Amino acid sequence: RVDAFIAISGEIQDRIRRYYRRESPVIHPPVETDRFQPSPHHDDYYLIVSRLIPYKRIDLAVRAFNQLERPLVIAGDGRDRDALESVAGPSVTFLGYVPDEELPELFARCRAYVLPGEEDFCISPVQAQAAGRPVIAYGAGGALDTVIPGETGTLFDEQTPAALAEAVRAF
Known about the structure:
Layout: H1 10-20, E1 46-49, H2 58-68, E2 72-75, H3 81-87, E3 92-96, H4 103-108, E4 112-115, H5 123-130, E5 135-138, H6 143-146, E6 153-156, H7 161-170
Parallel strand pairs: 1-2, 1-4, 2-3, 4-5, 5-6
């Protein structure tokens, strides 16, 4: 039998309560924030750092930024890369794998970090905030623990390209 449950986010805490009828404290995963520093200048691109797999919903961001015609830079690789590149417009750039030592500068210089999928807890938005950059995230899962609307970013309520595009425009 389990003596105690520990959740990594409020979302997981709710699942533990719902399925196991037990309470659990939330202990967020460690994030090495010291290596991320704000930059005095930022460039005009939005950023995603992620594995390119279906549940991450990178497809939403690609379609939204195609509509917006604003620059989106995607760092990461995965089985969906070819499919995503085939629907991406000229404003979407795929970097592929980016070495860990290059990520702090990439985060620090973006206009905002984009999190289109629902995650139990996601480290990348915390890294973006440590680099002084706001987050535009789907308002579910771990993003609810780390993104404070109007303060550290903005949330959108529906996982559609239109909802994400509207959140980017409002941002």
